[in-house]
Amino acid sequence: MSDRPDPVPGSNVRKQIEFYERTARGFDRSIWSLGNRDNRNHHAKITAIARALDIDAVGSLLEVGTGTGLHALRLMEGSRVRYVGLDVSSAMLETARGRLHGFGDRVQLAVADGSRVPFPDGTFDAAFCAGTLHHMADPSRGLRELVRVVRPGGRVAAMEPNWKFPSVLAYTAMTRAEWNTFKISPARLEAWARASGLDEVRVRRLLYTPPRPRSLGKTWDAIDAGVARTPVLRRLSIVLLVSGRVRLRGSAQVSS
């Protein structure tokens, strides 16, 4: 594969490449992650994705938007999956290769545009992305591509920032490459998932508290649990997670 994917007509992939090539070196240490992305909240996100995918039952796994490899690292540490990661940025994948080198041939990384995943239908047991759909000019197409390359009955998950959370709103407003976050909502994620060919669709709201200080981890967990049960406040989560099972051929759509 080329280190510069050919853009799908109408794609914004070139602008995304430019953004991530500039930010790759300091991506895991930004002020928005309080200095280190490998933190409590990141681990909670990965745990939720692993459960949504039923990771222990997965043989082959695709991630679109590998970034620096943090998601892959945590998922592979806790499972025996064979992982394929795609990203538009060669600079981001360079960091991911260093982080994942210890997994040997269980890992394959390649530069590719998630709007046109370079694999045949039904290649993988499961697929996911995290913080990737909103970087595409057409997020629904990105989700359709994830579903297309997963076998019938396999599971797909997509996690996206929720712009209603105050710090997400501020970052989104100030960063042009993040503006598509305003297209993301629970209703849209559910509609895109069903239209893409997923059954058993579920949309969850996750996390409300900061990742630090670590000493307050149990306190943050308790606050998260309480806010998640509060009708108005629960809408202000940090992230949204949509998941489902790829529809079996000829099956009717199942409501969640």
Give the secondary structure arrangement, pairings included.
Blueprint: H1 13-23, H2 40-53, E1 60-64, H3 70-77, E2 82-87, H4 90-100, E3 107-111, E4 124-130, H5 139-148, E5 150-161, H6 166-174, H7 186-196, E6 198-206, H8 217-228, E7 239-246
Parallel strand pairs: 1-2, 1-4, 2-3, 4-5
Antiparallel strand pairs: 5-7, 6-7
Helix pairs in contact: 5-7
Describe the overall structure:
With 256 residues, the chain is of the alpha/beta class. It has one domain: Rossmann fold (3-Layer(aba) Sandwich). The protein contains 8 helices and 7 strands, in the order ααβαβαββαβααβαβ. The protein has a 7-stranded mixed sheet with strand order 3-2-1-4-5-7-6, with helices on both faces. β1 (60-64), α3 and β2 (82-87) form a beta-alpha-beta unit. α5 packs across α7. The chain is globular, with a radius of gyration of 17 Å.
Structure in a nutshell:
With 256 residues, this protein is an alpha/beta fold. It has helices spanning 13-23, 40-53, 70-77, 90-100, 139-148, 166-174, 186-196, 217-228, and strands at 60-64, 82-87, 107-111, 124-130, 150-161, 198-206, 239-246. It has one domain (13-246): 3-Layer(aba) Sandwich (Rossmann fold).
Structural descriptors:
256 residues, globular, alpha/beta, Rossmann fold
> What's the architecture in CATH terms?
3-Layer(aba) Sandwich
**Total domain units:** 1
Share of residues in helices: 25-40%
How would a textbook summarize the main sheet?
7 strands, mixed
Reading the helices and strands in chain order gives HHEHEHEEHEHHEHE
